[in-house]
Design brief:
With 141 residues, the chain is α/β, with parallel strands linked by helices. 29% of the residues lie in helices and 22% in strands.
Length: 141
């Protein structure tokens, strides 16, 4: 009989999330003054005509936690409660969740009404940076 000894390394906390960039389709030249309203689906159209298509990171991701805290002023628990309440009261579903930042970039580059956020280290091809989250603050691009 052979015994195998596995040395476990101590668990490390997730590193602090990277800075984020808020991205839109390059044809979308709208400013994003009501960023929270877009992600909470309170504002549904760009300048009243083109539907806003919102993509979110999964609730347990560092990017989502940072975005919700800085832009929406919500904890993960408060964000979950908000969407449960919205579904009950209005039937409104939360934004679509996409795990891979590269896929988010591709979706936003193809859909003119799309808006999303990704880590600032993500390769950004075919999108426009509309805002940044740096050092826990929302700033212009």
């Amino acid at each position: 009989m052979i015994a195998v000894l596995v040395l476990a390394s101590p668990l490390q906390a997730d590193p602090s999330p990277a800075d984020l960039v808020v991205i839109v389709h390059p044809n979308n030249q709208n400013r994003v003054p009501r960023l929270a309203d877009y992600f909470l689906k309170k504002e549904r159209f760009w300048n009243g005509d083109k539907p806003i298509i919102v993509f979110n990171a999964p609730p347990d991701s560092a990017s989502r936690v940072l975005f919700d805290r800085v832009v929406l002023d919500l904890t993960p628990e408060a964000s979950a409660r908000y969407w449960i309440d919205q579904r009950i009261r209005s039937g409104e579903a939360p934004p679509k969740e996409v795990v891979e930042p590269a896929l988010i970039v591709r979706l936003v580059s193809k859909l003119e009404g799309a808006i999303a956020y990704v880590p600032a280290t993500t390769v950004l091809t075919g999108v426009r940076v509309a805002a940044r989250i740096r050092d826990g603050r929302l700033i212009s691009p």
